[in-house]
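Hi, here's the filled form for the chain we discussed.

Project: internal
Contact: R.S.
Residues: 179
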Amino acid sequence: MQDTNEVVVLRLGHRPGRDERMTTHVGLTARALGADRVVVAGAASEPQATVEEVVDRFGGPFAVETADGHRAFLREWDGAVVHLTMYGLPIQEVEAEIREAHAAGPLAVVVGSEKVPFDVYERADFNVGVTNQPHSEVAGLAVFLDRLFEGRELDREWADAAHRVVPKETGKLVEPVDE
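And the returned structure, exactly as it came back:
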């Protein structure tokens, strides 16, 4: 089910036992920087549980789902598709057009790991390079979401949080949220 302006991150190429930490970071970054849900193409129970635990603790809304593969998801997707790839057009050249597409409807952001099948490049409305140099897919996702939301995601308030991080110049403080 798609909301009118939702942003969904589709994680491709999850390899159980090998990509647990990176897939977890894709989900956490998606949540923290404004996406509404992440869909992992493949079995990813450990990353799913970790991200859901963070949502329970620090608030949402944010959903984590798994899918058998990417093809059915992309075939059924009724909105624009952005594929993050170092081979794509520079983000600074297409970000305004992507924001327009998002204003008109939902947006799927495809984040790969190992070699991405060519059908993803063909299905994408935008093949976008955050830089045309090798880098982490988590870094690319973070920069993309910040550009998409123009920094507004940094001031986001979280509903149903059990805990909150209190900003401090030095040290760490996490406290329970009073009802």
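Let me know if anything looks off before we file it.
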